[in-house]
Amino acid sequence: MEFFLVILALLILIGASNIINHFIPFVPVPLIQIALGVIIALLPLGIHIQMETELFLLLFIAPLLFNDGKNVPRTALWKLRTPILMLALGLVFVTVWAGGYLINWMIPSIPLPAAFALAAILSPTDVVAVSALASRVKLPKSIMHLLEGEGLMNDASGLVAFKFAVAATVTGVFSLVDATFSFIGIAIGGFVGGAILSFIIIRLRVILRRLGMEDVTMHMLIQILTPFIIFLVVEHFHLSGILAVVAGGIVHAIERDRELSPTIELQVVSKSTWSVILYVLNGLVFVLLGLQIPSVAKIIFQDPEFHNGQVILYIVVITLFLFVLRYIWITASWSIGWMTKKSGAQKPDFKEAGIITISGVRGAVTLAGSFSIPYVLADGSPFPQRSLIIFIAAGVILLSLIVASVFLPIVANAEEEEVVDKQADKLRLATIHAHQAAIKIVKSQMTDENREAAMSIISRYHTKINALFYIDQDKNSNAIGEEEKDLRFKALEAERAFLDQLIKEERVDRESAYTCLEYIQRMEGAVTNRMKFRLYRSMTLFRRSALQVFKLFFPNKKEIRRIDLERLEKVKDLKIRMYKVAIQEIQAGITPENHETSSMIIEEYKLLIMRYKRENKGRTPSKMLNYERELFYKAIQAERDEVQHMFENRKISRDVANKIRQQINLREALTINENSH
Description:
The protein is mostly helical. The protein is 80% helix and 0% strand. It contains 26 helices and no strands. α13 (308-336) packs across α14 (350-358) and α18 runs antiparallel to α19 (451-469). 35% of the residues are buried. The model is unreliable at 414-421, 472-480, 530-537 and 556-563 (pLDDT under 50).
């Protein structure tokens, strides 16, 4: 029970980190998750999780790298194979050699083999952290592909070098020739083994499908187990499980591209399931890092052998060394010709080299490897400075994340400016994609019963798409947003003033007036504050649900239903009058500059008026309205999902995503208003 509560607490922290990131988007989610882990570890809750390296690599690194291998752009990586190998292999071994001597010189109490071990475990970069940081800025695709390829490959090279260095420290025996051949064998064997196992698993799935076993749950279970099976089997033969799961992911991606009759349902379930798994695993990696920091720091800070400031200085110097060495290696490699244009990589300028350098953050593999250092040597004596090595590794991870989160947006600022210049086109095209996603989901939900409602919604979306195709290309998107916001506020102020006047003159019952005031507040929240709007939306939906539950216990209360209908008619009549006032207000302020936006808002009001009048005359069947509402909410959610997908894949900036979400909120607020009586 205690273990379950700990896991539950960690999952809550992951959710809380994303909520916090919504309010402080300039702080990367990994840093927030590390901070939350530190806070929980410092609180007297007794939460402590022992870091077991093999289990950590199996549970976290294996599925994450398998997924990266499945989704990595293979063509782009093949073109960049030379620079990727230079970073994933060449830079790793240069880091081990130069870093080992630096650490041993700076901290003589760490013997040279142990210093090589620390340098080796600090050499791999973290592709998960890089992706999280890159979501805040628009990195060039070539650089992002280079970083992804490096992150997939250097985990294996860094871990193998680390194991040899630790073995040399423990036994006192080391042979460069034996280590080189062993590394080649372990790497190639792991990659080939992972590919073979993946092929076998894929053939097993094909055989099951040919036998008529199309059960989605069973095939999904095979998918989830695949990276764990590959990792365990390959590691059993003392080969690289890391490279094995990467190879397995690539083979599965090839199979997915060539599959002749994919099951649509399995694809949908697979995408949803893996998104949840990756979300949880990515979050747990950094929360666990935060949990380990206080205990490691406590040991070092209480050790009289070291001065606290001196230990912090070690971390700063080593982190700076890693960044400087990385920059020198990148520029030197291109200058010497190891990274050529033939490989698809052009010589980077100062800014591009700076982006690649700063993106070299350390993460999960570094942490897991440092905790795998044995406590004793072969002769039974303690491993030299084990706690200090772990503390330095954790400190470098944290400091590299902070440096990247601060300086990456600054260095990549020119790329952001380029995005802003094209923001109008980005906003228009992204909105069209969101509308098309809504149409697709409505079509998939269409039946004979709801066909009329579905066609009505699809027609409205097509109208919006056509309007976006012919929108004035020269009009700035920011100007359009501010213009629309001002006009909607002007209309809402007119509605509020009209309502206040009716209340003052006692020409309307207060219950209907307060219902309409609540609607105005919802609309204002949708225009200005997303969280405020969501609060209003949640309250409205809760109230509607509570009312439905209440009616279940009083199904025969005709008098209650009659009162509800009378109140509904009064509210609709009042809103029709309010909308007419809003239309008059907007019409009075139409200019050549705002004519297009004004006409759009006026048309929305006129459609609402027509709809209310039809309902009052009984021309619109209630079943039809229910179908429309149900399909509309699914379409809205499809739009939100598409916007999030485009943002996560760096197709649109955060600013563009927020603008589209604000438009979606406005339309949803209008619909909630129609259905919240």
